Amino acid sequence: MEDVRVLVADDEKEIRNLLKKYLERELYKVDVAVNGEEALKLFAQNKYNLIILDIMMPKIDGVEVCRKLRDQTNVPILMLTAKDTEVDKILGLTIGADDYITKPFSMNEFIARIKAHMRRYLILGSEQHHEDKSTIKFKGLTINLKTYTVTKNEKEISLTAKELKLLKFFVSHPEQVFTKTQLFRNAWGDHYIEDDNTVMVHIRKLRKKIEDDPSNPKYIQTVWGIGYKFTGERDE
């Protein structure tokens, strides 16, 4: 197995050194950054299997770094914060982070959660390496990203370009919660959403085509007060 490389970004020296020490005990290679700007530079220069970001960092905060990284990679991203409010947790997870850890934390728990994310990531990476990367299969739904075709229960269905872009974005980030603005930005390529109903209308049309019961969806689920997430079960 290739060496596992981790990027740790935190402006607190003691936290950086502590995380580096414990992660290296697990035989991970660790790079550290003192702010968000340095984290982005290191990411551009190296290939990482896991990224740990403190939310409150100088120059570029962890939230913005996570947003930028999530547009480029699917590796696990864990957010560190001294705040323990529901709003902060929702914010961390809706920008594409995989987990959220509040300071102070138990190092044993931290390492256990790191290992869990790494196992999932390495297993999925191994599966994708051996599969045709252009085809993504779920129970009752197959998406071919090369031919831009979608098959439901072995019957091809017709999707518009925007519906296909939305579906492609969803299946590329399973179980992650996205706001309407994030979905609009990725499907329409615009950072400003003019009409909040635009995404909702397209989601509703997409559900009618891919769901057995659009009123009780099993693929695209609503996360009330936040947005949507894709929860399809992968076909073995």
Question: What's this, in brief?
Answer:
InterPro entries: CheY-like_superfamily (IPR011006), OmpR/PhoB-type_DNA-bd (IPR001867), Sig_transdc_resp-reg_C-effctor (IPR016032), Sig_transdc_resp-reg_receiver (IPR001789), WalR-like (IPR039420), WH-like_DNA-bd_sf (IPR036388). The chain is an alpha/beta fold and 236 residues long.
User: Considering DSSP H and I runs of 4 or more, what fraction of the residues is helical?
Assistant: 40-55%
Largest sheet: 5 strands, parallel
Structural class: alpha/beta
From the alpha-carbon coordinates, what is the Rg to the nearest angstrom?
Answer: 19 Å
Helical stretch count?
A: 8
How much of the sequence is in beta strands?
A: 15-25%
Quaternary structure state of the chains depicted: single chain
Total number of domains: 2
Order of helices and strands: EHEHEHEHEHEEEEHEHHEE
Strand order of the largest sheet: 2-1-3-4-5
Under the CATH scheme, the architecture of the largest domain is 3-Layer(aba) Sandwich
Shape assignment: elongated
